[in-house]
Amino acid sequence: MKSLSVNVPLLLPEYGRNVQKMVKHLLTIEDKEERNRQAQIVVATMANVYPHTRRDTPEFRNMLYDHLFMISGFELDIDCEFTKPDAAQFAPIPKHVPYSQQGIVRKQYGALVPRMARQIATIENDEHRAAFAASLAKFMRQKSYDYNHEFPSNDIVIADLFDMSNGKIELDSSVFGGTQITTFRARARARQQQQQQQSRTPQRTKQNSSNGRKSRNHNA
Q: Do residues 83 and 131 both lie within one domain?
């Protein structure tokens, strides 16, 4: 018995190895009329792979003949109602996708924050520019926390924003309003601490009550 490990790879696995052998046999048939007749039988066999598809549609038959030519390595010469496909159209050369190789200077902010800072710096309306700059500063503070797992000082965020905007955005610490930016981790820790405090409260109440009873008994 011939081992499957020495067989050639399946070009279209959904049709199986027997269909691939049948197509290979078509290439050895010299008489073109006989080759055309046998090719129609092979195509009918290939159609059995799609039992729930309408087989009388031109699109379906065109697909089967395309697959037939693909399995033959586009070497099969037969007459059919469809144009023989070209190998190049099934293996097009992908277009080069440009990708910026420019390094990110401040990785904690990412690549978009500097672009946002430069865009905000171009806003002519002073009130709008200040509002957008304050929102961006708070966002930068949050991003820095997500990256470093600790909040940066306000002065660092303000200096970074000033630098990224080419000196066109100047802020002071009042934009943060003295508030902390709450993150998911911070909220989770707060809930955990609150639960721990609540679990200790009944024990303290029970101890106080027990101490009170002991004190009354002693006085009596």
A: no
CB 73 within 8 A of CB 116: no
Measured distance CA(47)–CA(151) in Å, rounded: 64
d(CA 162, CA 170): 6
CB 168 within 8 A of CB 119: no
Map tokens 């820095």 to a residue. 144
Q: Is this model's pTM higher than 0.70 or not?
A: no
Token pair 């990224």 is at which residue? Answer: 164
* Domain encompassing residue 122: 112-178
| Burial annotation 123-162 (CB, 10 A radius, 16+ → b, else e) | beeeeebbebbbebbbebbebbbeeeeebbebeebbebbb
Q: Of 55, 90, 125, which marks where a domain is finished?
A: 90
19 and 75 housed in the same domain:
yes
Return the ∠ at Cα 118 (arms to 184 and 110), rounded to 5°. 35
pLDDT of residue 5: 47
Of 177, 179, 202, 181, which is closest to residue 139 (Cα–Cα)?
Answer: 181
Kindly give the interhelix angle for 32-47 and 58-71, rounded to the nearest 10 degrees. 110
Contact 78, 39 (CB under 8 A): yes
Give the model confidence (pLDDT) of 158-207 as tens digits.
Answer: 999 999 999 999 988 888 775 544 445 555 666 776 777 777 665 555 55
By C-alpha distance, which of 170, 152, 172 is closest to 162? 170
